[in-house]
């Protein structure tokens, strides 16, 4: 396993979820560039550093012994990775703040990995207002191919004059000099209307398809199963909760679990559940899918699986969710999913489940039912 070597530390780091013989690393050249820049600036034991969107903890773990570090991000898997990588390298815990909560400064240094969703970056920059110490610096980083021009525009808008660095190992820094700016009202959360059933759905900044219902879910909703029984059902990868909420409205006796690895998704799902279903009980939580769900504890799992983790595209997360669903379902329980036709989920599900049926299809999507 390659070692992440910087002027601060040499660390043995792993990604989450861990995969056997994973060719991908838990760090990249942008992490290295950020830390080299910070080392040139100089820090001390009382320097207060905020690290944003540290995918697998490479930045926070490197800095933990040398400064007062707070890490914040929207990924529960990222939080797990940070904790495991700290323990793996015999380092003390680091304070972690989910992106659904505000960080309290003042901070002397802010290190940002530019996220895939620029709305999340915008929300994070808006929240920095009033949280920067005198003389603070704000530096964002990313691999050049994943670093949109708009990221620099947001830094200039909300922080101050921004200077891009030269590219090093295909990575670039965006260095912003804070200046006095008026407080700005956040445009998040945003909302959109669902026609059938008639719902207003709230979406915090990092929610997938924040501006409108994604077309996969739109294809899935008319075909959700209905039952008057006391079904134990889960919306796996719930996003803003739309699948679980619509299912619950149509199945008044269902006991619902909604889980997502995005803290902002869970925050959105909780608020949408309360708006649609009031005080009806539900377990809505951030988690590593159904990894913590007891075996044989669910009758039904609904899922619109993701096909990427940050910028990495593939079906490994979906496959993992299918395995988790099988383990959590009782014998005879069902996993219902929607997926792009070209992803071939039908064949994958047949390797895990007793029977797989196509419930519905559009030119682009299929709705499948897999029975344990």
UniProtKB/TrEMBL annotation:
<keyword id="KW-0698">rRNA processing</keyword>
<dbReference type="InterPro" id="IPR046977">
    <property type="entry name" value="RsmC/RlmG"/>
</dbReference>
<keyword id="KW-0949">S-adenosyl-L-methionine</keyword>
<dbReference type="Pfam" id="PF05175">
    <property type="entry name" value="MTS"/>
</dbReference>
<dbReference type="InterPro" id="IPR002052">
    <property type="entry name" value="DNA_methylase_N6_adenine_CS"/>
</dbReference>
<feature type="domain" description="Methyltransferase small">
    <location>
        <begin position="199"/>
        <end position="369"/>
    </location>
</feature>
<feature type="domain" description="RlmG N-terminal">
    <location>
        <begin position="1"/>
        <end position="179"/>
    </location>
</feature>
<keyword id="KW-0963">Cytoplasm</keyword>
<comment type="similarity">
    <text>Belongs to the methyltransferase superfamily. RlmG family.</text>
</comment>
<dbReference type="GO" id="GO:0003676">
    <property type="term" value="F:nucleic acid binding"/>
</dbReference>
<protein>
    <recommendedName>
        <fullName>Ribosomal RNA large subunit methyltransferase G</fullName>
        <ecNumber>2.1.1.174</ecNumber>
    </recommendedName>
</protein>
<dbReference type="InterPro" id="IPR029063">
    <property type="entry name" value="SAM-dependent_MTases_sf"/>
</dbReference>
<keyword id="KW-0808">Transferase</keyword>
<dbReference type="InterPro" id="IPR058679">
    <property type="entry name" value="RlmG_N"/>
</dbReference>
<dbReference type="InterPro" id="IPR007848">
    <property type="entry name" value="Small_mtfrase_dom"/>
</dbReference>
<comment type="function">
    <text>Specifically methylates the guanine in position 1835 (m2G1835) of 23S rRNA.</text>
</comment>
<dbReference type="InterPro" id="IPR017237">
    <property type="entry name" value="RLMG"/>
</dbReference>
<dbReference type="GO" id="GO:0052916">
    <property type="term" value="F:23S rRNA (guanine(1835)-N(2))-methyltransferase activity"/>
</dbReference>
<keyword id="KW-0489">Methyltransferase</keyword>
<dbReference type="Pfam" id="PF26049">
    <property type="entry name" value="RLMG_N"/>
</dbReference>
<dbReference type="GO" id="GO:0005737">
    <property type="term" value="C:cytoplasm"/>
</dbReference>
């Amino acid at each position: 396993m390659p070692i992440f070597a910087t002027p601060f530390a040499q660390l043995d780091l792993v990604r989450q979820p861990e995969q056997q013989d994973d060719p991908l690393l838990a760090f990249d050249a942008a992490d290295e560039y950020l830390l080299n820049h910070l080392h040139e600036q100089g820090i001390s034991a009382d320097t207060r550093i905020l690290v944003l969107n540290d995918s697998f903890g490479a930045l926070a773990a490197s800095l933990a012994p040398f400064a007062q570090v707070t890490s914040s991000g929207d990924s529960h898997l990222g939080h797990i990775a940070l904790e495991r990588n700290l323990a793996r390298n015999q380092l003390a815990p680091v304070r972690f703040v989910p992106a659904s909560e505000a960080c309290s400064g003042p901070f002397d240094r802010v290190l940002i990995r530019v996220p895939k969703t620029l709305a999340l970056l915008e929300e994070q920059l808006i929240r920095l207002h009033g949280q920067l110490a005198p003389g603070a610096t704000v530096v964002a980083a990313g691999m050049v191919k994943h670093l949109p021009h708009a990221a620099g525009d947001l830094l200039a808008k909300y922080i101050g004059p921004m200077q891009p660095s030269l590219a090093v190992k295909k990575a670039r820094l965006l260095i912003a000099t804070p200046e006095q700016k008026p407080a700005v009202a956040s445009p998040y959360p945003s909302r959109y209307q669902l026609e059938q059933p008639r719902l207003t759905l709230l979406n915090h900044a990092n929610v997938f398809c924040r501006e409108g219902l994604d077309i996969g879910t739109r294809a899935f909703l008319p075909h959700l199963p209905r039952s008057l029984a006391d079904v134990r059902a889960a919306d796996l990868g719930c996003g803003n909760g739309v699948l679980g909420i619509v299912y619950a409205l149509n199945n008044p006796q269902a006991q619902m679990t909604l889980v997502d690895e995005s803290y902002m998704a869970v925050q959105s799902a909780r608020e949408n559940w309360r708006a649609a279903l009031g005080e009806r009980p539900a377990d809505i939580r951030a988690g590593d899918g159904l990894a913590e769900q007891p075996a044989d504890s669910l009758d039904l799992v609904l899922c619109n699986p993701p096909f990427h983790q940050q910028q990495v595209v593939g079906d490994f997360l979906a496959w993992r969710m299918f395995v988790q669903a099988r383990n959590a379902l009782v014998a005879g329980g069902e996993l219902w999913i929607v997926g792009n036709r070209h992803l071939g989920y039908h064949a994958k599900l047949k390797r895990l489940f007793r029977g797989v049926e196509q419930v519905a299809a559009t030119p682009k999507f299929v709705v499948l039912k897999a029975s344990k």
